Amino acid sequence: MTNIPVFLIGHVTKTGDIAGPRVLEHIVDVVLYMEGERCLSHRLLRSAKNRFGSTDELGVFEMSEHGLQAVLNPSEMFLTEHDSDSEILAGLAVAVVLDGSRTFAIEVQALSVPGSLGQGKVVGTKSKRVEMIISVLMKQAGLKLQDNVIYLNVVSGFELSETAGDLAIAASICS
């Protein structure tokens, strides 16, 4: 009635749910999640509920001296700089994924260490999914990865959940 927006800020639990009673989600028109890694300068603004429009939107912002600024080409953030003739390109692959209504080019980095003891680490996607891709590479491509420790990283803290990224995960491990 007064045409003044009201912001209610809630806490998100480890499982990604809004803490407290579910009534908070039901009384508001829009639920937004601000995501991002603590040590990185960019944040993702994701819509989980929108009573008046689409929830298939994702905003990418970067913290600057003037506050949060919209990032015009977010794919540049998710790719690292390399020379095309560099040997450093081994273990890198790029996936083009759809998040909301936007496409992003996401870099996947992998390191396979033969004969190493310990357990690998997966950052940016589910480790069970990576284990399944490694099993497929061993069975179908004949790669001998059983004695290797594999480290996998999705650049810039992006959470790779779309299956379109599976080929990039496989390619980065193979290379």
UniProtKB/TrEMBL annotation:
Species this protein is from: Aegilops tauschii subsp. strangulata (Goatgrass)
GO aspect biological process, one term: recombinational repair
InterPro entries the UniProt entry points to: P-loop_NTPase, Ribosomal_Su5_D2-typ_SF
Name of the protein in question: DNA repair protein RadA
